[in-house]
Amino acid sequence: MPRHGDSTFSVRHYDLELTVVLVTNALSGVATLSCTALEDLDDLTLDLYRLRVTKLRLDGASPAKFSQRGARLTVRPRRTIAAGTEFTVEITYHGSPRPMPGPDGEAGWEELADGLIVASQPHGAPSWFPCNDRPDDKATYAFGITVPQGYTAIANGRGTGSKRRGSTVRYEFAESSPMASYLATIQVGRYVPLTSDVAGVDLTTWCPPGRKAAVAEAFADQPAMVEAFSRLFGAYPFATYAAVVTDDELEIPLEAQSLSIFGSNLVDRDWSAQRLIAHELAHQWFGNSLTLRHWRDIWLHEGFACYAEWLWSEESGGRTAAAHAQEQWDRLSELPQDLVLSDPGPDDMFDDRLYKRGALTLHAVRLRVGDEAFFALLRAWTERYRHSGVTTDDFVSLAQELTEVDGAELFGAWLDETALPPLT
Questions:
Q1: What is the architecture, at CATH level 2, of domain 290-416?
Q2: Which phi and psi angles does 386 have, rounded to 5°?
Q3: Segments in 162-270 forming alpha helices (H)
Q4: Could you give phi then psi for residue 126, rounded to 5 degrees?
Q5: Residue pLDDT, tens place only, 177-225
């Protein structure tokens, strides 16, 4: 994203200690970042939006200077940090968080009627913690989140404990798999858990107490989805998966790493809701374990998750993927042919045509190489690049390595040209 991230250093681990006051939408935090210099550093820059830094320590001491301008926090060390050196930045900050504007709208911290959500894709992480906001800079995370009694705080990864402190409760979570900053999240609300276990994965669906029965029915197929996708795509890449269902209606659902967020308007058994439950789950493989290095490759997330919807339809006894593909090809053929899938630009990053054309690209590969080779390719893709950053070239190269497909001929037409190629 423009004016986000600093490529001169990398963050290995974030330790976030946060206190949330819901009634005033106040956040205070201490963020400790364990970093590595990738170049000699005379200064370094972090991303933080609308939140005031009151104290900053670099390796336990005051830096020569730090300053905030716009959404950028610049730190000047007392002496040059040599390339390859590990160092720690501890930042104390507070404020009233707001969603962060970007080229595709606002993202990040969002107040609910009774609680909050964080949905940061693609640029909203700086709305609630200081970070090196680049999708290719993955790190592990630890969260300590203090909220008023009566509320539950949920974050990425596995819950490691909770403790009452007077009128508040502190919740702990740890995400031990590397994660991009935009996929970090916290959710706060009056939630109760629905739990299950499938294929060694701890599944939890969090929802308001009054919606427990309806949510249990609407999300009943999640275990079967995990089993099906684990067979088709390879082992589920994390130890846990949580779905958070808010009392509020939300415009769209959104995934974070090991967690997805749904509005109450998706508590339904019809296909329009079930396909999105499958879509957000599929992002755990395509988007969270395998994360784009550059936003131009967003089809590697959305095209794959859209195709997973069609596969779930096929797996669950509904319409075949072929039927969905033909329907969407017919629809796209009537729409403007001006989108380049491999580099859509900021205005079309989340255009529905990108989702559908990405899924059609995968179906075209499946038709060309056959089911056995196609699903072997997907499993090899998720295994080789597990918990890593990926590019379109990586996928095309792997497809050429493992199948007979001519990458220039097949992928060039679908990825690099605007005209819609024939499906068969």
A1: Orthogonal Bundle (1.10)
A2: -50, 130
A3: 212-218, 222-233
A4: -65, -5
A5: 999 999 999 999 999 999 998 988 999 999 999 999 999 999 999 999 9
